[in-house]
Hints:
The protein is of the alpha/beta class. It is built from 19 helices and 22 strands. Helix 14 (371-384) crosses helix 15 (401-415).
Amino acid sequence: MEGENLIVSMQxxxxxxxGIHALTGGKLELxxxxxxxxxxxxxxxxxxxxxxxxxxYEADSGEILVDGMKVIYKNRRSALRDGICMIYQELNLVQKxxxxxxxxxxxxxxxxxxxxxxxDLQRAQELxxxxxxxxxxxxxxxxxxxxxxxxxxxxxxxxxxxxILIMDEPTAALSITEIEELFRVIRKLKERGLSIIYxxxxxxxxxxxxxxxxxxxxxxxxxxxxxxxCSMQELIKSMVGREVSWEKKTKSEVPEGAPxxxxxxxxxxxxxxxxxxxxxxxxxxxxxxxxxxxxxxxARLIFGADWRKSGTILKExxxxxxxxxxxAVKHGIGYISEDRKLLGLAVNxxxxxxxxxxxxxxxxxxxxxNEKKQDMMTEEIAKSVSVKxxxxxxxxxxLSGGNQQKVAIAKWLMKNCDILIFDEPxxxxxxGAKSEIYQLMKEMIRRGKSIIMISxxxxxxxxxxxRILVMCEGRITGELDIAxxxxxxxxxxxxxxxxxxxx
Length: 503
């Protein structure tokens, strides 16, 4: 590689937080006008390396060159001045402000001492036009879809005359159509000469959008591949240091004659249209469907998190009343939500406090928590699910995504629920942590528990489920035994609209 083609060179970057080594030898080389994929397991050091490049953190040691000049960024503003902008997975927009206000917040145009709103609206319109985004810059951000909000973040990024955009998991919450639109924008930015660093756990996307792929593992640089010359299996092996393969489950592993543990009859709400199904003891029941099909909404009705118009729930043949999550937990039903940070965890509390959240009565029978007992019990549970942590007192926010998900699972293991609803169990989790979570789920089944698993990943549904139910527009449109299930059959049911039946 010719040195003059490099816009960024990061060599031997090291960073520690309180004795924990986040980076032990980070390296990255970015060429002008390329899309560089950056991958690795959760905790591999990707985000830390990018936060150093974008000025959020300062490296303990190492060398960073931008356009051939040695730089040390002590804050985000200094990195932005050099045209380096990072777009985070959790979008950094003020929901109640307009698009234009969000793009130029803190940098508003002025006419004397007054704000020149007309000029900012015009500038915002030009940026949106560059991205082929047909939306009024006066539109309040909260009224936009997640995909359009992401485009606003990109518009904000390029408004700094950025030459380097860092995108962290940009497609995590997007539909297939929205991903295609994002890729179109990325290609357009690349044609303009921007360099893009693209962090993603969705490896299949990398082959569509990147020129090269850099792999990190355990805080260190492993290798950089030309995308056209590498395979999916090669990337996975570099990421995790071992072979990881996926196989479709060929037959149900539920014992013949296994009793029905849970029955849901005629469940309905504003979106859910009279859904009925059963869950057997020792079964992993998969729920497939496209985004917005109603899978999460149905799960929340069962868990008592949302109001339902009608519906009956039976456990072991006996009708149970669930009007709140408290009722659900009392009846042995746990729910691991798709948004673990917002709904599944108290991220500013410790691992111990999070695992103990569902078990306060057990730990504090007299209203006072026995901290020694809590530490001992939560440490045992955390170790059983292989949470990588310095201690149970470590704050959950400082754990990787995969380890946060393990803590969310450990919380319900502590409660010893016999029915667990996993909503997107491996969203935002790398392939190595996925494998560990799948093993945890299988271990739960071996212990006699039953699982409802909502997933948007075909591979996950086909490798883990004993039976698959598919939803479309708030209805269950079909049931597939795993022996007969395929991606094609799932997709056919996932787009089976009600109007097709009456046609």
